[in-house]
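Slide 14.
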Amino acid sequence: MNTRRLALVVLLVLVAMLAITGVGAAKAIRVAMVTSESGLGDRSFNDMMHQGFQRAEKDFGIKFNVIQPKSISEFKSTLARASEQGFDLIIGSSFDMIDPMKEVARMYPKQKFALIDVGPDPIASNVVSTVTKDWEGSFLVGAIAARTTKTGTIGFVGGKDIPIIHRFFIGYYYGAKMINPDVKVLESYSGTFTDPATGKEYTLALINRGSDINFAVAGATSAGVIDAAKQTKTFAIGVDSNQNYLAPGFVLTSMMKRIDNQAYDIIKLVVDGKFKGGTVLTYGLKEKGVDYAMDKYNKGLISDSTLKLVEELREKVIAGKIVVPNYFELKPGQKTMGQPPIDSPLN
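Slide 15: predicted structure.
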């Protein structure tokens, strides 16, 4: 065997060995998804976020683990344990995780963190966070509800009486009142994101007061709101993911928060080497971060004229001609809100 041929054989053997051992291959990025207390299977926020991880796995070849704390009290310890496991990125998914993540981010300054759909303030120098303009999506479904109600009364069932849920209510109320100033908008809070039976109980109470369309903003509890709609032949409005399929014909629409896109985008920042902690990313109608769901399960439930009107409202929001009020920006005693202004329900 001549020298050139021997060198070629040796080179081929080395290439084969590198391929087998993985030497020289890019190391797969490892990401942890830390759910809210309602966990996977909530058919809402966590499941929607999980879809973004699955898409990132397919597109970027990342590896990810889902970690599911059972209660808010476990958030800090869960984040700390994850920080010891060598993840390139840890993404959380709860407004109640802000303070625990701040603490753990200080303890592990070199760890990259992200928190999906929280407030407008940066969390820490090693945390990227996002704000979903859920008040803009809620505005659209509020308008749909006001145009569709037969009783002139619509309802809202929140998981907990906390600021981030008030954002949904204010947008919903604003959309409904813009369409029909005389519509009644009832407000109720179940106190839980994890109990469908309680959600059903609270919804039935609103239905007994005349509400024929109820917007569920309650995580896994929302399933009970939808069940109540089916039982009473009224309508529910789903939240976070497209929940129309849960009760075809009884879910008027769903206010979708594209948190799958948000998780995907943050993972891509790490993949591309562009992750910059201390930043806040915003997703509204303009950024396609929120929308209402239309599919075969709710086809025909919303009139064509209503759909046309809602699309006009969408374009006005995107153009800045309508400014949907954000609960976090309202001041105590403020009498009107939004542009064009309507009376605030907080007085």
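Speaker note: The CA atoms of residues 30 and 87 lie 5 Å apart.
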